[in-house]
Design goal:
This protein is mainly alpha-helical. It has 2 domains: 118 residues; 160 residues, no CATH class. The protein is 78% helix and 0% strand. It has 9 helices and no strands. The longest helix has 34 residues.
């Protein structure tokens, strides 16, 4: 097993261990177990970063040009943003969402063809890593807002049915979940905006135009408008709670299709094949 594969495997196992620790911490309410999960995730992203470093050296550029690399980078961004969010909220329940999701992304990445490809020379620019970093960090923030939204709806349903046992006792309060949702949206939206802007400048350097209206760009803009509407509703109309949670979930479905569906099902300049130099 090569260094890159070894680091990838170690990272995946660490994310699995962190997932178990956070799930146990959520059930038992033991702060020590939650702290162990946090340290496991921290070790995981450090080793994961080393894996990207090796891959960057091998590929000679930013290693996010295939489905395998994209899923792994998404997992890294998700863990990083969760750890930053955890500094403020210290929520085992969110760790029990973020860590398993990161693990599943790594498993999906492992099941995808692991081929190191060279970036098409036409696309080589310092704007590529900038665009990719902003876009993936924004996606990760929205994934966390999606998780908070799902938890909010579950908790809200339990309250309405007056079931104050089981999962009700494991989840944070509605107020905390709504704050987490809003915090993630507030972080994700400017990151997504910067990702779109940097992508437009990158497209201009590569193809001589800022916008092509290809499927990826069209769906990204549509998703941006959905999140813009959600933030506008929260800031000016006072959307909170259930309505904001539902909107976050719907917007994330559009984001998932933009991230995966467009690349796998539709054509355009943003398919993985278009990035590769064959």
């Amino acid at each position: 097993m090569g260094t890159m594969s070894l680091l990838f495997s170690i990272t995946t196992v660490i994310y699995l261990i962190a997932s178990i620790l956070y799930l146990v911490a959520m059930v038992t309410k033991r702060q020590q177990t939650s702290s162990m999960g946090r340290w496991a995730l921290l070790a995981g992203i450090v080793i994961h970063a080393a894996c990207f470093g090796v891959r960057h050296s091998t590929a000679g550029g930013t290693p996010v040009t295939s489905l395998h690399e994209s899923l792994a980078f998404f997992a890294w961004c998700l863990v990083l943003l969760f750890l930053l969010l955890d500094l403020r909220f210290r929520l085992s329940a969110m760790g029990a969402f973020a860590a398993p999701l990161a693990f599943l992304l790594m498993v999906a990445s492992a099941l995808s063809p692991d081929v190191v490809v060279q970036l098409n020379p036409v696309l080589r620019s310092w704007l590529f890593p900038v665009h990719i970093t902003f876009a993936f960090l924004g996606n990760a923030a929205f994934a966390l807002s999606f998780g908070a939204g799902v938890m909010y709806l579950i908790q809200n349903r339990m309250l309405k049915s007056k079931r104050f046992t089981g999962i009700y006792q494991l989840l944070p309060s509605l107020d905390v979940l709504d704050k987490v949702n809003y915090t993630c949206l507030s972080v994700g939206f400017p990151l997504m905006t910067l990702g779109i802007i940097s992508g437009a400048f990158w497209a201009n350097t590569a193809w001589g135009t800022y916008w092509h209206w290809d499927p990826k760009e069209t769906w990204a803009l549509l998703t941006w408008f959905l999140y813009a509407a959600l933030l506008h509703g929260r800031l000016t109309i006072g959307w909170r709670g259930r309505k904001a949670a539902i909107f976050s979930i719907i917007a994330f479905m559009f984001l998932l299709f933009t991230f995966l569906g467009v690349n796998l099902l539709l054509g355009g300049y943003h398919t993985f094949e278009a990035f590769a130099f064959l």
